[in-house]
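Cast an eye over this sequence plus tokens and explain the fold to me:
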Amino acid sequence: MAEAYDYLFLSLDGAGPAHRRLADALAAAGPAGGLVAQFTPQLGWAANEGAVLVRDGAPSAVFDVVAAKATVVERHRLTPTARPADGASLKTGGIYVHRWFTVGAADVEEFVRLSAEAWPKFEGQFQTVIFGLFTADRTPADLAADQTRLLLLTWYGDHGVWEASRDPTTESMQIFLRRQALTRHTRACSTLLVGA
């Protein structure tokens, strides 16, 4: 069974220095022990917002440090779909785009299939790496609307690569357009990986 993750969307007291203080506190807490990544904002988030991704079973010290340095605005329990494989790590440098999708619950399997079909062509043509596509645990609102939320976490060499990858004539984008037809709602932001 694929390992689960927790995605913590944070509000910090201040901007740049607060992100650094959180990173330093997490480092001082000892070996990562389940901490996958800390992200700081680029486009789409306020300067004092950020996120932390941890693997299932992370020691409580990780959550204690986060709670001492930030307010957890949202906590999402995530289950990997086609990626990442257990133990996968994130690529350094570049940017990470966090893109949330909402799809009908009955469309999740097709959404994941189309995504996985397009990724090899997409990664072969652009300086990109798909780290993971995750389903989020369904909330009561999701159940009432018969929907599922997914998080796609993608590394790009830079914002220029992201812009170039929007080319609607590419084979991968044609597949993504079929996936878009299944999408009820989507939003994205770009971030930097702390320490990268």
Summary: Residues 5-193 form a domain with the Alpha-Beta Plaits fold (CATH 3.30.70.100).
